Amino acid sequence: MSHRKGGLQGERTCKLIRRALIELVEEKGFAEVTVGEIAARAPVNRATFYRYYRDKYALVEEIFQDVVSELSAGLGPTGQVATRERIVGWERLFEHVGRHHRLYAALLGRRGDPWFAARLRERCVELARDRLRTVQDAIPGAGRDAESDDLQLVLAANMILGAITWWLEHHRPRSAHDMAEAVVRFATQGYFDALGIGTAQPG
Amino acid sequence: MSHRKGGLQGERTCKLIRRALIELVEEKGFAEVTVGEIAARAPVNRATFYRYYRDKYALVEEIFQDVVSELSAGLGPTGQVATRERIVGWERLFEHVGRHHRLYAALLGRRGDPWFAARLRERCVELARDRLRTVQDAIPGAGRDAESDDLQLVLAANMILGAITWWLEHHRPRSAHDMAEAVVRFATQGYFDALGIGTAQPG
Amino acid sequence: MSHRKGGLQGERTCKLIRRALIELVEEKGFAEVTVGEIAARAPVNRATFYRYYRDKYALVEEIFQDVVSELSAGLGPTGQVATRERIVGWERLFEHVGRHHRLYAALLGRRGDPWFAARLRERCVELARDRLRTVQDAIPGAGRDAESDDLQLVLAANMILGAITWWLEHHRPRSAHDMAEAVVRFATQGYFDALGIGTAQPG
Amino acid sequence: MSHRKGGLQGERTCKLIRRALIELVEEKGFAEVTVGEIAARAPVNRATFYRYYRDKYALVEEIFQDVVSELSAGLGPTGQVATRERIVGWERLFEHVGRHHRLYAALLGRRGDPWFAARLRERCVELARDRLRTVQDAIPGAGRDAESDDLQLVLAANMILGAITWWLEHHRPRSAHDMAEAVVRFATQGYFDALGIGTAQPG
DNA sequence: ACGTAAGCGAGACGGTACGTCGCGTCTTACC
DNA sequence: GGTAAGACGCGACGTACCGTCTCGCTTACGT
Fold first, then answer.
1. Which of C 44-103 have CB under 7 A of nucleic chain E?
2. Among B1-5, B68-72, D86-90, where is mean pLDDT lowest?
C-alpha cells in the first residue's frame, strides 16, 4: 500500500489480487484459501503476489484497513451530542457492514479468521471508548474505573460484533435501523427488558 | 473416543497426546501446532497420532467435547428458581473456565481457533436458551418472537464470551463471582447503568 | 518348515498362508503383495504370519524349495545314459513347470521377483552342470576350461529359462514334449539351423 | 524428458538426479534405493525429485530409454550383409554394455529390477527380429512360422542376456570380442559343439 | 520518441507438514 | 501353545503450499 502506488500497473494488479481474495474467502473461507489460488484467480503470477504482499495475512490486513477507514470516515466525528435516542451511529455501522456484507460475512463467519474478528473487535472497542469518553467528559462528577470501564466496553463490543455476525449469518433479515435499535435496547435496558420479560430473573 | 477404550495402552496414549496438544497450544497457539510436534511432545510416534485422530482438529474436538460435558454437568439442571440476583449459574461458568483457564485462553485467544470459539458460543446460546425457556414458561402471558429471542440470546452469549475472553487475556484479575456480577449487571441494567452513568446516552 | 511341524494347527496355518501367497502372486505379482494381504487372505492374523516367516521372501523361498525338491525328484538320478535324442529330462522339466504353471508364471513373469528367477536359473545351472560333468567324465580325453564351461552353462540355463517364460506367457500353446524338442534343437544345432535357415548368417 | 528441456537448471538437476540414482543402484541395488536417498545424493530436495519424476521407476525408465537409444544408434542400420562370421553387431552390443557396465550390472543383477531386464530382453528380441527378417527376406523360399520364429528369437535373446549378465557379474573377464564370439558360437553350433564335446549328448 | 527500468510470467528450488501405508516387534487375553 | 486383536515405533511414500529466487520479455515512463 505504500511502495507500489508508483505504477498504474501495480495498482491494477493489487486490485485484481484483492478482488480474488474476497471472492475466494466468500467461497471457501479464509483459512482454506492459498496464495496459489489467489494468484490463479486474479489472474496473476504467484510470484507477483509476493511482490506486493508478504502473505495472505498481509493482504487481508490491507483490505481490513481500507474497510475500517471507510467505516471511521462514515461514522464522522465522535464528539457529537449523544442521546439515548440517537442510534444513528450504530445504524451507520450496520449500513456499512451491509454494504460490505459479503466480505464481513466471509471474514467473521466461523470459517473466517479469528484474527480478523479480533481486529474488528478492537476497533469497536476503540470507537466505543471514544464515545464513552465524550460522554464521561460531559459528566464532571462521574468517578472512573479504567479497568471496569474497559471490561464494559469489551462486553459492549462483543455484543455488537455478535449482532453483526448474527445479522450476516441470517442474511440480514432486518434493516440496519432495526438492528441498531435492538443493540441499543440491549445496551440501555439490559437483556431481560429487551426481551420484554422485565419481571423475570436470570439464573 | 469410542474405539479405543478397549486397550489400556491406547487410553494412556490418548491422554499423552491430549496433554501434549494442550501444552503446545498454550505455548504457540493452535494454528501453529503441528502433528509432528504433538507426537514429539507426547512422546509418541507420529503414525500413532494418526491411529487415534484424523488430524489435530479431531483431537481438539475431542478435548472440547470433554470440557463442555464437564461444564454442562457442573451447571446442573436448568429449571431452577431464577432471580435477578441469582448469579450462581454464571459464577459456576467462570469457575469452570478458570479451572481450565490455560486451555480456554489458548483456544479463545486471537491465536485460538475460530471454530472452537464458534462451538463454545453455540453452546452458550443453547444454555441460555434453556434458561430463558424456563423463565418464559413461568410467564404464561408472555408473547414470544422466536427470531427476536434468538438475536437477544446471541447477543447475550457474545457478551459472555467476551467477558470470558477479557478475563483470560487479563489473567483473571477478578474472582469468578465478580465476573458473574459484572455480566449480570450488564445483562439486567444495560451498559450505561452498569457504568454508573445512567443519565448519559449512547451515540 | 522346521520348528513348526509340532502342531497340526501350525501345519494347517502354513498351508493357508502359502496358498494365500500363491493366489495373490497370481493376481497382482509378487512385488505388490503385502504381508497384510497374505494374512487377510489366509485368513490368519498378521502376527501369526510372522510367527512362521520372517517376511514374504522367506515364505516364497520355502515354496520355491518345495517346488525345486519336487523337480529334482522328478528328474531322477543324473548319471543316466544321455543321447542327443533323449530329451526326456527336459520334457520332465516342462511337465513339472506345467503342473505348477500358475506359480511359475506368477514368479517368472515381469511382475515376478528377480530373485526368484535368479534362484531358478542357478538351480538350472546346477542341474546342467551335473549332467555335463557326467558327460565329460565319460570322455576322458576332453580338456576342460572351468570358466568357459561355466559361461556355456549359464547361456544354456538362460535359454531354458527363456523357453519356460515364453511358454508360460503364451499360456503353453505347445506340449511339454514340443518345448523340450525346441530347446534341444536350439542347443544342439544352434539358432539358425533351428530356424531352418542354416545357410543364413547372423549380423 | 520433454517438458524440462526449457530450463537449463532443470536440465542440470535431472542430470544430478540421474547420476545419483546410478550411483545408488550400484551400491545397494535398485529395490533398496529410496527417493529420499536419491535426493540427498543428488543433492537436491526431495520435492524437487518429484517435480521431474513421478517415482523412481519413471527415473530409471528415462535412463533406460536413453541407454537403449544409444545402443540402437550404435548398432547402425540393420539391413546389412550378415555372415556367419560377422559378429560385429554383437561385439558392438557388448562394447556398449561394457561402456555402461556399472549401470547394466546394477540393473541386471539379482538386485536389479525385473522390469528393466524384461525391457532389455524385449529390446533384444526386437533387434534380433529385425536382423532375422533381413536374412529371411534374402531367402525367398524359406517357410515361416511366426510363432516358432518368435520362440527361437526369445531363446536367443535370453541367451544373450544371460551372456551379458554373466559377463558383468564376473567383472568382464574377457573382451567384448570374445564374448561376441562365444555367443555366436553357441548360436551357430549349439551348446555341445561350443563346449567342444560334439559327440556327447544331452540328458 | 524512445531507451530504460519497472512490472510481470514462467518456473526452479529448498523446505515443512501433511496423511497414508507397510513393515516387524510386542503385549494381552482367549481357548 | 497357538491364535486373535491390536498398539507401537519406524521409515518411506507422494502431495500440497510455502516463500525465495533467476531469467527473459514487454510495456509504459521519464527525460
1. 46-47, 50, 54-56
2. B1-5
Grid cell, residue A56, equals 495472505
When the pLDDT of each residue in chain A is averaged and rounded to a whole number, the result is 81
Contact at CB, C163 and D151, closer than 8 angstroms: yes
Q: Tell me, what amino acid is at B179?
A: M
Helix (H, G, I), strand (E, B) or coil at B111: coil
pLDDT digits (tens, 9 = 90+) for D49-102: 999 999 999 999 999 888 888 887 876 555 444 454 457 778 888 999 999 898
- Residue C96 CA to residue C73 CA, distance in Å, equals 11
Residue A44 in this model has a pLDDT that exceeds 90: yes
The 10s digit of each residue's pLDDT in B16-38 is: 999 999 999 988 888 899 999 99
Long-range contacts of residues B12-19, Cβ cutoff 8 Å, at least 24 apart:
B13/B42, B13/B44, B13/B48, B13/B52, B14/B52, B16/B42, B16/B43, B16/B44, B17/B42, B17/B44, B17/B49, B17/B52, B17/B53, B17/B59, B18/B59, B18/B62, B18/B63
- Note whether C201 contacts D86, CB cutoff 8 Å: yes
Provide the residue ranges of all domains of chain B, joining segments of one domain with +. 1-53, 56-193
Provide the CATH topology of domain D56-194.
Answer: Tetracycline Repressor; domain 2 (1.10.357)
Tell whether B40 is within 8 A of chain A (Cβ).
no
**Whether the model pTM is above 0.85:** no
CATH class of D1-53: mainly alpha
Q: The domain at B56-193 falls in which architecture?
A: Orthogonal Bundle (1.10)
Q: Give chain F positions with protein CB within 7 A.
A: 1-22, 28-30
Q: Which three cell numbers stand for residue A198?
A: 422485565
Q: Judge: A135–B200 Cβ closer than 8 Å, yes or no.
A: yes
CA of C30 to C1' of E26 (A): 27
Task: Spell out a b/e string for D141-155, using b for 16 or more CB atoms within 10 Å of the CB, else e.
Answer: eeeeeeebbebbbbb
Which class would CATH give C60-192?
A: mainly alpha
